[in-house]
Amino acid sequence: MEKKYKFVLTPKSFFSDIFSSDTIFGIICWYVRYIYGESKLLEMLKKFDNEPPFIISSLIPNGFIPKPQVPFKQKDSIKEIENDKKFKAIQWLPLQTFIKYQNNYNQDKVIHELIKNGQSIIAEEFEITRNSINRNTGMALEGILFTDTYYYSNMTFTVYVTLFDDSYEDILKNAFITACQMGLGSEASIGKGIFDCLVKELNNDEKQLFATKAKSYFTLSLCAGSNLQPISYSTFTKYGKLGGEFGQAGIDGIRLFNKKPIVYYKEGSTFIANHPVEGTILKNVHTDPRIVQYAYAYPVYFNESN
Question: Which residue blocks in 8-138 are alpha helix, DSSP H?
């Protein structure tokens, strides 16, 4: 029986990324392996070949959703063109604003409401510039600097979960909560990416969001696969890297930690709805056949106005 709930994450340190669904899935997989053993992980991954036991979203700022992409409509007035430019720069929509128009989504009305009410800040960025270090001498390299970007925020973030196989509920919760306590991302070892993580039921707005059924949807996750029928979308090429033990020591003594490039549809891309679950687990992304990449869509259905 299908069940929806969410992980609510509160940052307890700086963090370096708004983590995408494939990264979150990879983190979950490593912690399933650490907590339950490799045989349990392989059993779980095999299920994703046909009917996934669960699907997950990317990290979503609480109270917002990714802006749905809809086909461009020609605008005539200068004001309409200026408003369109402002809207293109917006990545996130307030959840309540979208729900209001979910059954008759009209981008112009959404633009008008956002301009009227203003757009909330999601997460502030800041940069730290450091000296590069000579690893042989331990001394700073003269004139060679590098800069890292981090986020800090008083907001909470959400990862939505749809569970299809209830035998994986405790496994998923234990793995992800442990991962949040240990730190998410590449700099967890130096205290970055630590979150408090709570499991919560959907609130009334979220129940309404997911209750709608329609002939099209936009995705809350990165996704890919031949069963997707895009309507309006953005893509990017991801050059993934291995995590966990593979990222630290390589595989069988070979440090080939880069995956093959993958073209993903971004969050907010819209599709024709053909099946309840669309997307796939990508294989052949590395010379080691055990390595796979998560690419299932997490759908939010909506009807666009004519």
Answer: 21-36, 38-47, 78-88, 95-100, 107-117
Q: How many Cβ atoms sit within 10 Å of the Cβ of residue 27?
A: 24
Q: Are strands 216-219 and 262-265 parallel, antiparallel or unpaired?
A: unpaired
The helix or strand, by DSSP H or E, that contains position 265, with its residue range, turns out to be: strand 262-265
Contact (CB, 8 A) for 189 and 267: no
For residue 155 the two structure tokens come to 């907001």
Buried b (16+ CB within 10 A) or exposed e, 193-212: bbbebeeeebeeebeebeee
89's CB contacts (< 8 A; 6+ apart) are none
Residue 294: closest CA among 268, 257, 259? 259
Q: What is the pLDDT along the chain (306 residues), one digit of tens a residue?
A: 799 999 999 988 776 677 899 999 998 998 999 999 999 999 999 999 888 999 999 999 899 999 899 876 665 566 655 666 666 667 888 899 999 999 999 887 887 787 777 655 455 554 444 455 555 555 555 655 544 444 456 778 999 999 999 999 999 999 999 999 888 776 666 667 788 999 999 999 999 999 999 999 999 999 999 999 999 999 999 887 766 666 555 566 655 667 788 999 999 999 999 999 999 999 887 777 778 899 999 999 999 876
Q: Are strands 157-163 and 54-56 parallel, antiparallel or unpaired?
A: antiparallel
Q: Where is 205: in which H helix or E strand?
A: helix 204-211
Give this prediction's pTM: 0.84
User: Do residues 286 and 257 make contact, with C-beta atoms less than 8 angstroms apart?
Assistant: no
User: Which candidate, 54, 102, 1, 45, places its Cα nearest to that of 277?
Assistant: 54
CA dist 259 and 30 (Å) reads 16
Query: Which of 231, 234, 221, 235 has the alpha carbon at shortest distance from 280?
Result: 221
Contacts of 304 (CB under 8 A, 6+ apart): 70, 104, 105, 106, 216
Asked if 159 and 195 touch (Cβ cutoff 8 Å), the reply is no
